[in-house]
């Protein structure tokens, strides 16, 4: 592996114009594809294998022509204090708005008058009413004129003293990330400048990462309509791709500068940097790809697409790092090194020329990383206990995790959808915003009317039911639908119990009458989704951790090091989940992170955090511990190897972590709760994993294990493939080639400058 990548690095350095041209061409092609692609018009959500999805599929089959993809809205009215919405002047105002909406757009499918005697939509106390609006197209296909017509509905009523709020998905827009995303990239640039002391060296990772992300996100945008990619797919791919792209470039540029400091020629330094640090990048990227692609085992299309799209962006980041970075290093010349270091080396070279000494590079010097590693090795037990106990305390809120899918009730209280949600809840009951849709398959039933009466009668007896609407059969008479309005709010345990009670009743009816009863609707889908997430979490965790364990065992030629890496990851991800619960569910420091309305954690969050954080956590493990392994293989003691790893890796890993935290934290400013929560969760998880687990717990455990950390049974060592990640074979080959060429050893005794 190292030898192959060494050749790629040297080739890219020599043929830098060709390599750069290829990547620019790819970026242009992807950009044109994104610009000319049709806009994604669907944000579909399905959960294969669940009852709610089976009911949904049955509705599409038995009720042809009634598309469930159309947008919908509710215009909610509340009469002025002391008045009724049914008063003649108020009722006339509402009916006028019904007519206004009907004439306001040709995209409208139906507008339901709240005073229609067949389907009244007025609260029992007569103070609240709502207009139901449905559209022929999805929310993403609505024109601005249609949106404006909906937004302006009720302006006159507001002026007359009525409260008018609008809910539903018709006004849904693409999420905004805000200025904080740009701030994250700016922070990354500042960190790179501080780390390298050179604007050119700092700019390289940013430019190459943006090229890789640009190609990836443009490709996703171009394929969004064809592959039905959700609005969050490109955002997640951008988030992951930008973070790993900067980090991978950072590690290769850092190693290149280290090779220059040892006296290598620029092309040789580029080859060695890609051969060694590039090997770590490839395997680190593989762990991220495994974690993201592993989301396919959950068998939920939206998660599968998000995972594969993000994994593709990571692959691009790896390819950019091992090809475009060495090409750009060729363009950068000596400016890749800070002016201060160039002057110091020039002075050292002049002194060496005057004294006749041979100067190849700088002698190793102590830095913050070496001092920290020695401190940890002197007090490994104390550091280990402090790290484990600290993260354990932060993880405590995770035990109170409540999961659900967001609805308008999770919106900030200042928004119109949230106000509409609260008005409906106050006027019609807490369960009105989460109706259950019952679907009865009557194909195998002999007495259909009796079956429907029995079903609705039994459901109405349930203590958690407020209203059961009369069944509505289809034209063929083989299917009927009805609505159940729970007494309790949609995400309550009582409503979840009600859903299971109705399904149990359906099992009884199927055995007795042949009729099949299904429960669907947003609330039932939410319950099924959460249950499926819970069921999939452990198998997914076992698959991802198992595959990555095998991969790390190949990289490190050890059993205990991969085991320690996996356990450290579990500690950091549970602590991060605890922090997410504390902020987004309990509301602690919610104002600081823009959380206006605490509520359940999105069902997708735990499994998504496991996938993404595991891949990123393994990045730091590979980058930091590979350098230790390299030093150990080259003859250093376990203690010296830890110090060497921190001398070369601590500053770079710290910079990489700060950059990744800044990039993820930039998405906390998103207007969409899911993106905000993911950004916060990933940022805090990287902080815990990089600075507590990898920088403190890892050296403490390695210090306690000593040589045992690198133990591997001989039979297993022979069975595992050797990819030479630490570059030992590459080093021997290059030293041998240099000796045969008569040019003397390439690595000579260094002279301190």
Automatic annotation (TrEMBL):
Entry keywords, A to Z: Cell membrane, Membrane, Transmembrane, Transmembrane helix
Chief location category: membrane
Topology of this chain in the membrane: Multi-pass membrane protein
Region (Disordered): 734-753
Keyword Membrane set for record: yes
Compartment annotation: Cell membrane
Keyword ATP-binding assigned: no
UniProt xrefs under InterPro entries: Acrflvin-R, MMPL_dom, Mycobact_MmpL, SSD
Superkingdom per UniProt: Bacteria
The SSD domain, residue ranges: 199-331
Ranges of Basic and acidic residues composition bias in the record: 743-753
Spans traversing the lipid bilayer: 182-202, 209-227, 233-253, 274-302, 308-333, 381-399, 537-556, 568-589, 601-620, 652-671, 677-705
Family as reported in the entry's similarity comment: Belongs to the resistance-nodulation-cell division (RND) (TC 2.A.6) family. MmpL subfamily.
PANTHER family with a match to the protein in the record: MEMBRANE PROTEIN MJ1562-RELATED (PTHR33406), MEMBRANE PROTEIN SCO6666-RELATED (PTHR33406:SF11)
Protein name: MMPL family transporter
């Amino acid at each position: 592996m190292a030898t192959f990548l060494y050749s790629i690095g040297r080739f890219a350095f020599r043929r830098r114009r060709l390599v750069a041209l290829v990547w620019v061409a790819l970026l242009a092609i992807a950009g044109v594809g994104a610009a000319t692609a049709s806009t994604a018009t669907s944000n579909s959500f399905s959960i294969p294998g669940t009852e709610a999805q089976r009911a949904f599929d049955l509705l599409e089959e038995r009720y042809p022509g009634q598309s469930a993809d159309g947008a919908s809205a509710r215009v909610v009215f509340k009469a002025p204090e002391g008045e009724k919405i049914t008063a003649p002047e108020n009722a006339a105002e509402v009916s006028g708005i019904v007519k206004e909406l009907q004439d306001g757009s040709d995209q409208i499918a139906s507008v339901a008058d709240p005073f229609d005697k067949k389907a009244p939509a007025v609260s029992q106390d007569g103070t609240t009413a709502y207009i139901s609006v449905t559209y022929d197209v999805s929310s993403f296909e609505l024109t601005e004129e249609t949106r404006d017509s909906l937004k302006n509905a009720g302006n006159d009523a507001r002026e007359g003293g009525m409260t008018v709020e609008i809910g539903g998905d018709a006004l849904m827009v693409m999420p905004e990330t805000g200025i904080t995303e740009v701030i994250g990239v700016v922070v990354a640039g500042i960190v790179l400048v501080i780390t390298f002391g050179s604007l050119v060296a700092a700019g390289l990772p940013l430019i190459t990462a943006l090229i890789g992300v640009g190609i990836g996100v443009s490709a996703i945008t171009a394929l969004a309509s064809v592959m039905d990619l959700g609005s969050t797919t490109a955002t997640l791919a951008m988030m992951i791709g930008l973070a790993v792209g900067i980090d991978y470039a950072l590690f290769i540029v850092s190693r290149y500068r280290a090779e220059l400091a040892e006296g290598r020629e620029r092309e040789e330094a580029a080859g060695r940097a890609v051969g060694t640090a590039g090997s770590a990048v490839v395997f680190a990227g593989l762990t991220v790809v495994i974690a993201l692609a592993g989301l396919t085992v959950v068998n939920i299309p939206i998660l599968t697409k998000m995972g594969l799209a993000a994994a593709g962006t990571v692959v691009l980041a790896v390819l950019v790092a091992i090809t475009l970075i060495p090409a750009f290093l060729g363009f950068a010349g000596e400016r890749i090194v800070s002016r201060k270091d160039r002057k110091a080396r020039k002075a050292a070279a002049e002194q060496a020329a005057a004294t006749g000494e041979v100067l190849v590079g700088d002698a190793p010097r102590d830095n913050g990383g070496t001092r920290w590693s020695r401190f940890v090795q002197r007090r490994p037990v104390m550091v280990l206990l402090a790290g484990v106990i600290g993260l354990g305390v932060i993880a405590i809120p995770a035990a109170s995790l409540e999961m659900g899918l967001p609805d308008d009730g999770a919106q900030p209280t200042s928004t119109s959808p949230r106000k509409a949600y609260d008005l409906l809840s106050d006027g019609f009951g807490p369960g009105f915003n989460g109706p259950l849709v019952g679907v009865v398959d009557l194909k195998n039933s002999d007495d259909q009317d009796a079956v429907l009466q029995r079903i609705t009668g039994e459901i109405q007896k349930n203590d958690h039911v407020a209203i059961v609407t009369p069944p509505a059969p289809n034209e063929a008479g083989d299917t009927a639908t009805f609505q159940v309005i729970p007494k309790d709010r949609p995400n309550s345990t009582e409503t979840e119990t009600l859903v299971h009670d109705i399904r149990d009743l359906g099992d009884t009816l199927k055995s007795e009458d042949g009729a099949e009863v299904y429960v669907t609707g947003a609330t039932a889908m939410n319950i099924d989704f959460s249950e499926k997430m819970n069921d999939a979490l452990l198998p997914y965790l076992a698959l991802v951790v198992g595959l990555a364990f095998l991969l790390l065992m190949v990289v490190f030629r050890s059993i205990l090091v991969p085991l320690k890496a996996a356990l450290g990851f579990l500690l950091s991800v549970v602590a991060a989940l605890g922090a997410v619960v504390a902020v987004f569910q309990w509301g602690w420091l919610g104002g600081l992170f823009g959380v206006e309305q605490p509520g359940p954690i999105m069902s997708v969050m735990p499994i998504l955090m496991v996938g993404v954080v595991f891949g990123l956590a393994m990045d730091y493990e590979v980058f930091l511990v590979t350098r230790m392994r390299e030093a150990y293989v080259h003859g250093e003691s376990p203690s010296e190897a830890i110090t060497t790893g921190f001398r070369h890796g601590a500053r770079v890993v710290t910079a990489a972590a700060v950059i990744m935290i800044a990039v993820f934290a930039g998405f906390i400013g998103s207007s969409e709760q899911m993106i905000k929560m993911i950004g916060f969760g990933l940022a805090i998880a990287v902080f815990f994993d990089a600075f507590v687990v990898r920088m403190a717990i890892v050296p403490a455990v390695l210090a306690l294990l000593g040589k045992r950390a690198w133990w591997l049974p001989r039979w297993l060592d022979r069975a595992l493939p050797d990819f030479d990640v630490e570059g030992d074979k590459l080093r021997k080959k290059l030293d041998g080639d240099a000796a045969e060429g008569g040019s003397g050893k390439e690595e000579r005794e260094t002279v301190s400058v």
